Amino acid sequence: SDRKYDPYRPTSFDQITKDAKEFCQELMPKPEEETRKLALLQKLSDITVEVFGEAEVLPFGSSGNGLALANADMDVCVFLNPKNGSEEVSPVEFVERIGDRLEKDPDFENILQLKRARVPIVKLNHVNGIACDIGYQNDLAIWNTRLLRAYCRIDERVRDMVVIIKIWAKRRKINNPYTGSLSSYAYVLLVIHVLQRRGVLPNLQTIVAGNGKVPFWDCQGFNRYFFEDIANLSRYWQPTPESQRQSIGELLYEFFRYYASEFRYANHVEDTEQAQSAPAADSKPVVKNRYLFCIEDPFELNHNVGRPVDRYS
Ligand code: 3AT
Ligand code: MG
Questions:
Q1: CA of 29 to the centre of ligand 1 (A)
Q2: Where in the chain are all domains bearing CATH 1.10.1410.10?
Q3: Complex ipTM value
Q4: Fewer CB near the terminus (10 Å): N or C of the chain?
């Protein structure tokens, strides 16, 4: 279907590739920002240990996978280890106690305790300019961060594509799951999907060393297995020669072409509308805007990452 006549296809992608690359360079975080993030990580780690005893604070999301833009916020996750003497607390209790402790520290501002979110978190700003989300015991987030980092290590075009799409979505104000649009994480998954279709990336979750069966590595009940030995990936998978020739400009064009005119949103929308217009006598639950955009999480297969999307966005 990609070979169909496309009247909008530019004859040359050189200029857009050049511009995109310059833009990516500009949007890279500076080393000094990295230093501020590390200092904040250390401070949060000290505070967590003070409140709960033994604890580990790990960065995830763009701070952990190399996909951060300059001035990106930092996502961190706290892991308590009751076996080593820390307390055992529920996610809501965690948010309350760490949130209350941070309130007492003048270095933190705009502290929000999001206790009812799907994944409860504390949001805050540090006086050094870094915004931070603090989550709790979210092993899957650590693993999906590692999966995205592995994809980035395969081909440098992944980072360039992600950076451009993220900045585009932020500027269009369609990058906020709290107000009905997609998270950055969702956009990264969309980019990876397109790159897989173009043969630029493999599906790391189906590649097994020695070509054996895909193992089941349990994480919160889901299979977190993926092929992570990128240095030896070429033994099991090679990009197609055509995919290697594709420039950032061409791949960006393909991203927008695919989601504008090939991806089948329409079916999902129709399904939703049918459900909503069902007669009242029909006791089926009314599905409201749930399936406008379906994006399967790589590990948590029953979680639609596109679920926050509303009809408007
Ligand atoms: P920014 O640089 O902050 O824009 P990011 O790559 O850090 O982008 P997010 O802030 O959207 O991405 O998400 C941070 C991490 O949180 C990424 C992923 O490990 C986890 N995450 C976010 N949204 C979801 C989701 N809907 N399902 C599962 N994990 C998610
Ligand atoms: Mg983030």
A1: 18
A2: 14-24+142-262
A3: 0.97
A4: N
Atom of ligand 1 nearest to the CA of 69: 2
CA of 288: how far to CAs of 179, 266, 310, 311, in Å? 16, 16, 9, 10
Return the amino acid letter for 307.
R
What CATH number belongs to 31-138? 3.30.460.10
Q: What is the CA radius of gyration of the chain?
A: 21
The answer to whether domain 14-24+142-262 has CATH 1.10.1410.10 is yes
**Least confident range of 23-27, 119-123, 202-206, 284-288:** 284-288
pLDDT at 279: 42
Q: What is the pTM of this model?
A: 0.89
Q: Which residue from 185, 190, 226, 300 has its CB within 8 A of the most atoms of ligand 1, so it is best to mutate?
A: 185
Paired residues of 113 in beta bridges: 122
Distance 142 CA to ligand 2 centre (A): 12
